[in-house]
Here is the input.
Amino acid sequence: MRPFKSVLFSVVTAALLATTALPAHASSAAPGNESVAAATIQNAAPTAAPVYRFWSDTYNGHFYTTSAAERNSIIANSPTSVWRYEGSVYGAFTRQETGTVPLYRFWSDSYRGHFYTTSAAERDQVIRTYPQHIWRYEGIAYYVYPSSYIGAGTVPVARFWSDTYLHHFYTASTAEATQVKSSYPSHIWRYEIDGFRVPAGRPAAAPLPTTPAPKPTPTTPGNPGDVRNCTDFNTWAEANAWFQTYYPLYGDVARLDQNNDGIPCETLAGFPY
Here is the structure.
């Protein structure tokens, strides 16, 4: 099932390099998560937005978004087995900047995953070739530099393919890419190419929402036994409050309701009937 259909996948995510070959997709395993948390976050270009990454043990794939509100909604509403937050992994642009190209996004109900390309020709070919349940076009995810970009201040995003999980994996971290190459056999994660380029520094992530303190769990009072008499209370309201605390759980243990009508200590001051 596609998680958060009305919200979750209205997001921006990672991308594929522009090619003429169409990919097979479905899911992926989580490579190199340890190095994401360990990597130093540097200051990025002022217009670059942080791209947040999640990993799913359920869908066997990653999910990317530049929306802090969407990130917070996923964290608040999804168990970590469905989407586990991994932090800000690189920067991208929410509007087109000089030298950048749009990243086009498709969603597949059949493969339970996204497909991304910077190629308008490939985008159009996918739209013409595949029915909606295979690849449905969702628009521009965000803007990145093409892999051919030679300007200073950018880094490549390595693209991996899994024959086992039928998903791509993307990372702008040299350390993470090296770890994946050395830790996994090629049928699990095979390096393909540097798919695109992003600003060299990762923007700092927006602060996570404060988790509210859990509400205290109500405790059930123990059975007090026959320890009170009507004369122990100053008013009927006091007697009734004590009676209503224990009566639903243990019955009239102190025998305050002499006529068994569910009303205790009817002779005390303040009795309303």
